[in-house]
Amino acid sequence: MPSITIEGPKINDIEKKRSLVKELTGAAVKAYGLPAQVIVVLIKENLPDNVSVGGQLISDRKNT
Amino acid sequence: MPSITIEGPKINDIEKKRSLVKELTGAAVKAYGLPAQVIVVLIKENLPDNVSVGGQLISDRKNT
Amino acid sequence: MPSITIEGPKINDIEKKRSLVKELTGAAVKAYGLPAQVIVVLIKENLPDNVSVGGQLISDRKNT
Amino acid sequence: MPSITIEGPKINDIEKKRSLVKELTGAAVKAYGLPAQVIVVLIKENLPDNVSVGGQLISDRKNT
Amino acid sequence: MPSITIEGPKINDIEKKRSLVKELTGAAVKAYGLPAQVIVVLIKENLPDNVSVGGQLISDRKNT
Amino acid sequence: MPSITIEGPKINDIEKKRSLVKELTGAAVKAYGLPAQVIVVLIKENLPDNVSVGGQLISDRKNT
Lengths: 64, 64, 64, 64, 64, 64
Description:
The structure is a homohexamer. Chain A is α+β, with helices and mostly antiparallel strands. Chain A contains 2 helices and 4 strands; from the N terminus they run E-H-E-E-E-H. In chain A, the strands form 2 sheets. In chain A, strands 1-2 form a two-stranded parallel sheet. The longest helix of chain A has 19 residues. Chains in contact: A-B, A-D, A-E, A-F, B-C, B-D, B-F, C-D, C-E, C-F, D-E, E-F. Chains A and F meet through strand 1 and helix 1 of A and strand 1 and helix 1 of F.
């Protein structure tokens, strides 16, 4: 605690994940004034047929 | 925002997913008076050995 | 299970909440082929200074 | 409802999952004074490259 | 990490919360083989007009 | 989508919230290569008697 959960599409580049968790953690450290060690980040990767925006699946949008 | 997350078992039929996100989105549009474009839906599919009801895994219930 | 969580702004009209949970539940019943009794809905109400879109708090947007 | 979601690494031993959901459910029964039948548990299994503590991915920590 | 989130009604008795988090933590310690210090528990308290079961708000059920 | 949820203690300083959501959003923009406009952040503020670490409520820890 604090913990950060980020829901998004798949991230294939591990370097992108490394930067992402570092920056999210840094933002939390500043906001809460707590040491980085207590900040947990969860990256949640979602398939395009499990996410919709405006009532349309992302996978259907891609087919357009 | 608003966002809707639905946790359930796997949905194999893509048509069922299409209808689901459309209906969930429509319900949110009416409740919040916001345009569909800002409504996000996340479908979360869970394996039967990762869900329990009444302290019993769904996968064990199926074995009965 | 299944359970639906909807994150949005405050809903002041209880009738809107009644319709919302009824419609969300109905959508889940159709998608999963399960009885309404097992469908749980959680409405989460968020303050405008706890939500941001595009990096800007909703409460700041309203001030514009 | 109530529902318990537990986010952690993968659990390979199904017996561990059985005990886990039974104990989590029992704890909720006592806290809320509700029958076990209404308590739902979701186990969420996360890959080590999707979790960070202290700004470092668990998968990178393991490499050390 | 691991973290446990429990969604339920309000718990008025702080002793009940103390026992709840202790038991949830103990269950996670056994399941993951990790020290208690890394286990986080979040108790989420929901109002009866923000939860529905079977398409009916809990607050309406109470009125019956 | 993507959406970021951050669970932590109360943040009393609105400037801290402004910086937090801006930085979280910026991190997501870089990771996903998506415009800031589609990134949603939810700040969740938790009371110290609703969070435990190591099986002990934060509110009890403060009393020490």
